[in-house]
Predict the 3D structure of the following.
Amino acid sequence: MESAGEAARALFAWGANSYGQLGLGHKEDVLLPQTLKDFSCKHQNIKSITGGGGHSAIITGAGELFVCGQNKEGQLGLNHTDDVLCLTLCPVLSSLCVIQVACGWDFTIILTRNGQVLSCGSNSFGQLGVPQTSGGSLIPLKIESLTEKVVNVAAGLRHALAATEGGMVFQWGTGMASRANRVSHGKMIPAFLTAKEPCKVTGLEDVKVKSVTASSYHSVSLTDDGELYVWGSNKHGQLVSKEAFLLEPQKIDAHFFSDEKIGAVWSGWTHIVAQTGGSCFSWGWNEHGMCGDGTEENVYAPKPITALGSAKPFLIGCGAGHSMVLYQTPG
């Protein structure tokens, strides 16, 4: 979730804290927001906050990466495997300017200002994209095969994505492969679903992608023209298709969004939220009401979140089973 800026002077955290992922210095769950007293925004202009299976990461305006939480697989990039209870600077990246971080279940993908991508943590499914190591890594390793400048990255449960300056999308990590095999019925499975290093996603040759997002078992890309392409598991209707699994990207028709262009998109574990010029749409798994339509029934096509009224959303975040929207009321 991006920070709007310099006015913020305190960082709060709450929820599950089994590994110290809240950065509060202990491992007790927290039911009400608490301030991180040891990490004051007064001195650190926070640009982004994100979380993974049990770890958290923050990027400052200076391009520094601070991490905390679960570190069993080295996903914090600190060259050890001890859990970290307070936000700690990742010193290995001190000479680089980090502009984006994506946290998977037990791994981390890091994008620098010069367009390089690094990764650390578990590599059990090839999700680090670094064939030079068969195991995981305790420090961020550069993904050498991504030779074109990368502008956006995403991390799913056990796979990762990168969008390049030229509009191409690369995927790696085999986390989606088993589901693809079960539903392929003898069809050829695209190489990018079984790749352990970045592999070009086929089916996007005629579009220019500007951003990507990933979930547990599906992927989403947003083009310069404001169109959404999706692929992977459709178990909960999150891909707006009759197919159980989409082996290659498929465009979601614009009429689902009232023919408006999509400005940004976010993905939870099994649901998606998209933002147009003045509306929020959500669809997919809805057991906990994360689609915001007042029910707990799955939503099989993009549906406006009418409860927001005429409010204009400008910042959205999705978790495994929840959604958050920051918006500006009219007037």
In short: The longest strand covers residues 245-251. Residues 1-8 have pLDDT under 50 and may be disordered. Helices lie at 177-183. Residues 158 and 318 are 17 Å apart (CA to CA).
